[in-house]
Write a structure and sequence with these properties.
Two copies of one chain form a homodimer. In chain A, helix 5 crosses helix 9. Chain A is 40% helix and 15% strand. Chain A has a seven-stranded mixed sheet, sandwiched between helices. In chain A, strand 5, helix 6 and strand 6 form a beta-alpha-beta unit. Chain A is α/β, with parallel strands linked by helices.
């Protein structure tokens, strides 16, 4: 046990790392307070304010006095609205009873891992990957196994990689499509192979689809298409996590959802009752307006804006000398190899911030795999800022 | 491992029970849908809508575009407002840096136990007590030790009881003052003795003060008065949990706070970053108005209304034959011994609901200690409803 002053903390705290980008963000804010101009390409949330129709629905919820707890699984009408969204946008029939409203995708991950993972059991995931995933597993005293991935598999796990790392302690695999930090998708055929392998092992597939609304070319397909095992027509052990944060521009509201196999809903309900009580009520009422046509129109315009930013930033960074082998199909990130400039991504990011006022995220926040020679650029700022950022980057590396 | 359909859940799920009151509440809603009149005395949240000044501040936050993440520890101005509240209402100087804004008191408990408890370590708590407490400990794979308490200690733990149950695996003690389900307080002298004992053991005292604003006679004193060890002037290992839910009538917003020793704040920060990202932003901005004089005036009127309800319901229940030995000083609950009527509190509650349309909570939701001969009445409904409820109860037991 670690000593913190007089106080001993649990062993898990030794393994859970803070995000290094937070120190960079704090320093960026300091510099801004001193009057420096900072280009923020480190922030993992849309720069857009929540669309008006959602804000108006939030205000109406206040006027209607909706300030009490909702059921632990969420407002029935929101669960139904999400089911209808799958019907409309994915041509998938998902019973609303399978949909659990959660406090952000974070809440969904905590529920799933809390219900599934015993201390010492393993969860496989890609490295690089979203840092919270491994920390959630560690929080439940499980063992997060990061599998190194590279451009050869679009920075995604493959059936072969999963098979190589499988042990008798493996309980689940987490995929993210699009991925943070790479913005790449899991290929449809690969997803099928992975799922088949996992279901044969009677383990669980957890798919993070929180950036699903932000896919720029392909029409996205949800892993929920594989909900049922075709050989015996029984539900597969698939959990899909989604969120109102990214595509719906509702980060601060803390609202997400989880689609789970029917047999596990009662367990998720009792765990949610105990650890959350329920997701925030104002957010749930506001989110009912997220699926309105006028909202989707706004969101799709913003999605186009993100695409435009990607289409500018990707070639610009390549021109400067960053190596980005896969063209990211979604999310708002570019994961760039920078070994031609540094072998210490954190120092590179610090120096770039101090000297040029450009904030980016060092690779070490996303795992151990070549983390010191990668950085993440988020295009969550305007084209004007991105152009200025690129100019500063050019002068930094030249 | 338990089989759920094809899917095996983690062992902890066997030990985490759903709230029995939820089944009662669902049945009550069903009966209401059939046109039956139901008196709700089972619900653990104020019947009042959030006060207008807080709702207005929420709307203003939307107008101002505050829809992004806040820092993981919370909005600095809200942390300062809470520090000032301790200054004003408790004459306590608490550095705002020690205050962590959380998604409800639930979030605070999850953070504290996540930071402190290793698998297999014990946390002591009163039985009867708030059911989530033991389930949070179990969630972290710790061992929740319920210590039977009765009227002789006002249903609170004492130093003697804690000493009797202490083992070398004990890491923390949870107190709740006022307690749910009993509404009783921890006596000041007893709190000092308990704290001294725990600090000598280098363990942690966790005090749930979420019903603190709802204390009807005594001026409440916070356990934070014991923040510092007077012998060496070092911080004691005390964690105080509070919430905007109960006194501030903000249940659905999911907003609470935690006051922690300075040395542990960085750990809480990194854990909050990972498992929540942050508490809901609209709620945090709205809560800035919770401390305004006009809000406090509304809340204090509502507090008087709760007192009036208690002063009606307590003697009325005693008249009927329920045994309530301690006069509850706070919260909005009466915990009543009902052995003269039943030795199966759940069946008693079901029958009362079906036959008379009165919903109450069976003792089995609060632990194992004489749980079958106790029920909880919540006075979270109007005087008119309470009077009607009492008439129905009279006819039920006669």
């Amino acid at each position: 046990m670690k000593e913190t002053g007089k106080l001993q903390t649990a062993k898990r705290m030794r393994d859970i790392q803070p995000f290094h980008v937070m120190a960079l963000l704090a320093r960026a804010r300091e510099l801004e307070a001193q009057g420096r101009s900072i280009i923020h390409m480190e922030i993992g949330e849309p720069d857009f304010v929540t669309p008006d129709p959602i804000l108006e629905a939030g205000k109406q919820a206040f006027n209607d006095g909706h300030t009490h707890y909702t059921p632990a699984l969420g407002l029935p009408q929101l669960r139904e609205a999400i089911a209808y969204y799958y019907e409309q946008h994915y041509q998938l029939t998902i019973a609303s009873q399978r949909i659990v409203i959660t406090p952000g995708a974070s809440g969904a991950l905590l529920l799933v891992l809390g219900v599934l993972i015993n201390p010492g059991e393993q969860v496989l995931m890609a490295d690089p990957g979203y840092p919270c995933n491994r920390n959630f597993v560690r929080f439940m005293d499980g063992d997060a196994v990061g599998i190194p991935v590279d451009a050869s598999t679009d920075y995604q796990l493959s059936k072969e990689l999963i098979e190589q790392h499988w042990t008798d302690k493996t309980r689940a695999v987490i995929l993210a499509s699009p991925s943070n930090p790479t913005g790449t998708l899991v290929d449809k055929k690969s997803l099928q192979e992975i799922n088949e392998f996992i279901q044969q092992k009677n383990a669980c597939l957890i798919v993070d689809e929180i950036y699903h609304g932000l896919i720029y070319e392909d029409k996205p397909e949800s892993a929920l298409a594989l909900s049922n095992n075709k050989s015996n027509n029984k539900p597969n052990n698939i959990f899909v996590i989604n969120s109102f944060s990214k595509y719906f521009n509702m980060t601060g509201w803390r609202l997400g959802w989880l689609v789970a196999p029917p047999a596990i809903i009662d367990d998720l309900d009792k765990l949610a009752q105990n650890i959350f009580l329920a997701a925030p009520t104002p957010a749930q009422y506001a989110a009912l307006a997220a699926f309105k046509e006028e909202t989707i129109t706004i969101l799709d315009q913003r999605c186009q804006e993100f695409k435009q930013r990607r289409d500018f930033l990707l070639p610009a960074l390549r021109d400067i000398g960053f190596n980005i082998s896969s063209t990211p199909q979604g999310a708002f990130y570019l994961y760039a190899e920078c070994s031609q400039f540094t072998n210490d991504s954190y120092q590179f990011a610090i120096k770039l911030l101090e000297e040029k006022g450009v904030a980016i995220t060092p690779g070490i926040d996303f795992g151990k795999n070549k983390a010191n020679t990668h950085v993440r650029f988020a295009y969550t700022t305007s084209m004007v800022n991105l152009r200025e950022g690129v100019e500063r980057l050019k002068s930094f590396v030249s």
